[in-house]
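HDOD domain-containing protein (Thalassotalea castellviae), 281 aa
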Amino acid sequence: MDAMDYAEKANEIFVLSDSFIRIKELIDDEASTIDDISDVILIDPALAATILKLANSSFFNYPGKIDTISKAVLVLGITEVYNLVIAYFTTKAFKSISASAEFLESFWEQSVDCALMIKYLGFKLGVPKAERLFILGLLHNLGELVMQQFQAEQVEMANQIGSKELPWNKQQEVFGFTYADCTAELLKLWQLPYNLIEPIRFQNEEDFQYSTMETKLLYTAKRMMQLNRQCKSHAQEDVLTREKLTVLSLQQDAISEANDYCDMERLGILAVLNPSAAMIY
């Protein structure tokens, strides 16, 4: 089986709700209004509460209080609220996965760290509306959850990384594809926007020549995160070269700054999106 085969199996189990589909239809419909979108969000109280919590968090750093969904859409913009909707329904879709609490806690911590790091890099480099990058980091590795559902023993094997191995290369060796490949196929089946799928599909691409800025940032943020996780024993240069940092006009201190930002924001995001993972803090 290839990445597409596993994604198709996952799509039968991990389903985005009807509310998500309706919100997506409204956002795609130019005739819909803010009130139309807000009304559908309000049908799901847990979704509405999650959006308001995140909108009022230090993540967005909005100076006033956002106390209605209509105001959230107006202040943050339709695209950003849509990203929050995707984040909420994605975490909800995988609630039924067959995996230990420890595995899931580690997975969501890594995903949130990558999401915070890519947002930080975007902000540091002056990328417009850098908050929108967060969703790329959060979703970038969903393929690992897919493979955990169907091939848990092989996932354990793929996640045993030697000091000279890289996670994505080990995944290729074990499965014949990477978690990134499987993630991209699932997001395609979920009919998520291409501007989310493309950076995730090519997050391991070493040649930056044809990569978009979002792809380069995800490539970099993921490796920065992995230096704290599976690649703790690696030399930095083996995971993220100075050459790649230079291409993005990043100095070495960007890594430590991004780590500091993660340490400040991680708990708040986990507490909203995945409270069980936040409890270990």
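The mean pLDDT is 93. The two ends are 38 Å apart (CA to CA). ok done for today
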